[in-house]
Write a structure and sequence with these properties.
Oligomer: single chain
Strand content: 25-35%
Number of helices: 7
Length: 297
């Protein structure tokens, strides 16, 4: 994604006021990549990647893509020793808020390990939702993820409502453990049995308690065929109520996921969108004079 002209203006302007950090005492693996403010590589990274969001035109002095968990530990300890501000970016979906000194960019940490026997997956912190779906599909398994493929695993720290949630809960209900680098640079595991207080806190307030370098989640059998799509109603919500009266007898308590949205542009009639996914062996066809599209569910 290219940055906007305004963002580039802020980037180039802030580069004029850069002040380098002495990284000579920071030990990193050969796989780590360091982008220092004022270099062409730094500018290219910001042009081509949704990496950081500047605050008042101030961008971090250094962006580091770690090559290992030990790199993350070393960066945290280095920041502490030198009293530097530190922030972290995941795989991502939206821009990452930044500290003025160092940003750890986890986007390259995308390894996924699937255990089809225990039906679990270990996800590194640069993984996106689409990566999880693609990795689990060959095994006939699925994770509870959100509905947008470009979201990172930060979703697991804030809820995660997806098409499997009526059966298996939120994404965060399916976390088995986190591996976390704490603020003092210690690598710990947080689960129901190890550091349970931290595990509780991470599921809902993840960024405030450490850097999740990986997490293990439950996987579930893909039960049957999935059908889905959108119905767009060009009228008020009463039309949706008629659709629901038609659909409800076919739906069990847990075999579908449904979201509704209302869009209203100035001077235009309201559009009521139904986003529906259902799984089962029956294909139903809904038609209505008020529906702009047909939906096979």
């Amino acid at each position: 994604m290219e940055t906007s002209g305004l963002t580039l203006f802020l980037i180039l302007g802030s580069l004029l006021f850069s002040s380098a950090i002495d990284l000579s005492s920071l030990v990193l693996s050969t796989e780590a990549i360091v982008y220092e403010k004022g270099t062409q590589e730094y500018i290219n990274l910001l042009r081509t990647t949704v990496t950081v969001r500047s605050k008042d035109g101030v961008l971090p002095l250094v962006i580091i893509q770690p090559g290992s968990v030990q790199d993350v530990i070393n960066i945290v300890k280095f920041s502490n020793r030198n009293h530097l501000g530190l922030s972290v970016k995941g795989g991502s979906h939206t821009d990452a808020s930044t500290a003025p000194d160092i940003v750890i960019d986890m986007a390259s940490r995308k390894n996924i390990s699937i255990d089809p026997v225990s039906k679990t997956a270990v996800l590194e912190s640069g993984v996106l939702m689409r990566d999880i779906d693609l990795a689990t599909k060959p095994f006939g398994l699925a994770a509870v993820i959100g509905v947008c493929y470009t979201v990172g695993i930060g979703l697991y720290g804030f809820g995660g409502l997806g098409v499997l949630s009526r059966i298996h809960g939120l994404a965060l209900d399916n976390i088995i453990y986190y591996d976390v680098v704490t603020a003092n640079g210690e690598l710990v595991r947080a689960s129901d049995t190890e550091n349970p207080d931290l595990f509780f806190a991470l599921r809902g307030a993840l960024p405030n308690y450490g850097i999740a370098v990986s997490l293990k989640v439950k996987l579930h059998d893909v039960l049957s065929n999935f059908y889905g799509g959108n119905i767009i109603f060009l009228s008020e919500q009463s039309t949706f109520r008629r659709f629901w009266q038609w659909f409800a007898p076919y739906a069990s308590d847990r075999n579908f996921s449904l979201r509704t949205f209302t869009y209203k542009l100035t001077g235009q009639p309201a559009v009521f969108l139904v986003d529906l996914v259902i799984w089962g062996d029956t294909c139903l066809l809904y038609t209505s004079d008020a529906a702009d599209d047909l939906l096979c569910v």
